[in-house]
Design goal:
CATH topology of the largest domain: Nucleotidyltransferase, domain 5
Number of strands: 12
Radius of gyration: 19 Å
Helix content: 40-55%
CATH class of the largest domain: Alpha Beta
Number of helices: 12
Structural class: alpha/beta
Largest sheet: 5 strands, mixed
Strand order of the largest sheet: 3-2-1-4-7
Shape: globular
Strand content: 15-25%
Length: about 325
């Protein structure tokens, strides 16, 4: 039996697990919050603590490596998070790999979070036995990965797949990366939440007001995907409007990918897609209406199959390949 630790470091949470490399099963798992306001040292300590926890509760399984997927641009050789817009500038050049290696004395592989999620789906999920597809995960931000001939395509600078930073409206909303008009600024969960908060400040009513009532300065991380799903299911007008608008923007981005790249399959995942059926359904509908007839005719859009575990499974698999 072979095992590896997989860690998924996102803009609002850290998920970790010890993974059975043959089955993709999480032998143990744990979750922590990650916050933009925390210090570098605090985040690194939190990573070490969660890795310790999953290893100590893994029923005697001995991991041979550690893999970590982080939301941002990665220096894979050094194991460093170069930049992650959803973490803040103070997290630039964060030594993820060296910190975990020095603590656990295991080889550490660091990659982009959607790259590892796509790897998990490739081995055990919606990309299994598929050689060519595009993965898009929608959560705090929007990330993408391109699988070509069964391998992750990384591009000339190892940063291919940044679909969340496609420009869909020139000079539009400010994105967390500092650019304007990027898809992430319109269709991510955090952008949808900011839209809802803005409307509520303008006097519109929503059941979501109860969630942010006690928060001094609510922001795009204040309302999670599960709360959005409950609001939509309850017929909340503002939530439905915000989700629908985000889905139309998401569809504009995906239609551009289809027209340009002509993939046979798009795998959609992430917290917003997993939790909110309306977002997934309207994204698929508007994408098919917006894309060119010929490429859309040979293309399917499917949900990711591994849910939250896609990242930790993929991170573990990448680490095992090293």
């Amino acid at each position: 039996m072979r095992y590896a630790v997989g860690i998924d470091l996102g803009g609002t949470k850290i998920l970790a697990g010890v993974i059975d490399l043959k089955t993709g099963e999480a032998i143990s798992s744990a979750k922590r919050r990650s916050q933009v306001t925390q210090e570098r040292e605090e985040l690194l300590e939190r990573l070490v603590d969660i890795a310790h926890e999953v290893i100590s509760t893994a029923r005697g399984a001995k991991p041979e490596a550690i893999g970590i997927g982080a939301a941002g641009q990665i220096d894979r050789e050094r194991g460093v998070l170069i930049s992650g817009p959803n973490f803040g500038r103070h997290m630039d050049n964060l030594p993820l790999g060296p910190t975990l290696n020095q603590t656990f004395h295991l080889p550490v592989t660091v990659a982009n979070d959607v790259e590892v999620a796509a790897t998990g789906e490739h081995y055990f999920g919606a990309g299994k036995k598929e050689m060519d597809y595009v993965c898009v995960f929608v959560g705090t931000g929007i990330g993408g990965a391109i699988v070509r001939d069964g391998q992750i395509y990384r591009g000339a600078t190892q940063t291919a797949g940044e679909l969340g930073h496609m420009v869909i409206e020139s000079g539009g909303r400010l994105c967390g990366c500092g650019g304007r008009g990027h898809l992430e600024a319109y269709a991510s969960r955090s952008s949808i939440v900011r839209y809802i908060l803005g409307e509520m400040r303008g006097g519109r009513k929503s059941v979501l007001q109860e969630i942010v009532a006690g928060i001094e300065q609510p922001d795009g991380t204040s309302i999670r995907s599960g709360a959005l799903a409950k609001a939509v299911a309850g017929g909340d007008e503002l939530a439905i409007e915000a989700i629908s608008e985000g889905a139309r923007y998401m569809a504009a981005g995906l239609a551009s990918v289809i027209n340009f790249y002509n993939p046979p399959r798009i795998v959609l995942g992430g917290g917003l897609v997993e939790a909110v059926d309306l977002f997934f359904e309207q994204t698929v509908r508007w994408t098919r209406l917006s894309a060119l007839r010929v490429p859309r005719g040979k293309m399917e859009i499917v949900r990711a199959a591994l849910g939250d575990n896609a990242g930790i499974v993929g991170a573990a698999m990448l680490a095992s390949e090293r």
